[in-house]
Design brief:
Length: 178
């Protein structure tokens, strides 16, 4: 009979216990949410990155391919449009485009009416690749969520949306009393 693996200790709970012992006057309750979110993101990111890299892509390159795919036919956008789609600066996008073009996943095309405008367009190989990798990506994410019911997923999505808004709102300057 194989030895059973000891139950993993809740690392966040341990950190909170340690702080409660060392600095009992501090309210560590934000850790209960945000430290868990951070640890979850790190695990998620590791799995997603490994899955995408198995296809010879970087996560950044995959972001470009999915933005082009989501744009619909003819699957082309300018560097500025790619940056606006939630990626990085146009300069950062250009570096990603260079790699994807070298790999034959996209081509650059000049606008017929304005030669200053340059589009990045998925090649047939790029389209097939992004469709394959994105389907695997969604399967991977589904597996990661298997322990949650559909209702729990919807509830968590609502709460995360609310958390994101709360974090964004915390950047607003606080009113000071006169």
């Amino acid at each position: 009979m194989a030895a059973s693996k000891p139950a993993s200790r809740d690392a966040v709970a341990k950190v909170m216990e340690d702080w409660a012992r060392e600095r009992p006057e501090l309210d560590t309750s934000p850790l209960d949410v945000l430290a868990r979110l951070h640890r979850t993101f790190l695990r998620y990111n590791t799995r997603i990155t490994a899955s995408i890299e198995r296809h010879g892509l970087s996560v950044a390159g995959f972001d470009v391919l999915t933005a082009l795919r989501r744009s619909g036919e003819p699957y082309r956008l300018t560097a500025g449009q790619l940056a606006d789609s939630g990626l990085v600066s146009s300069a950062g996008v250009t570096l990603r485009i260079d790699r994807l073009e070298k790999d034959g996943l996209i081509v650059r095309e000049r606008d017929a009416d304005d030669r200053r405008v340059v589009y990045s367009r998925l090649t047939d190989h790029g389209l097939a690749t992004v469709d394959t990798v994105f389907a695997e990506h969604l399967d991977n994410e589904r597996r990661m969520l298997d322990a949650m019911s559909p209702a729990e997923r919807r509830q968590l999505a609502r709460l995360l949306r609310k958390l994101e808004t709360s974090i964004l709102d915390s950047d607003e300057p606080q009113a000071t009393p006169d």
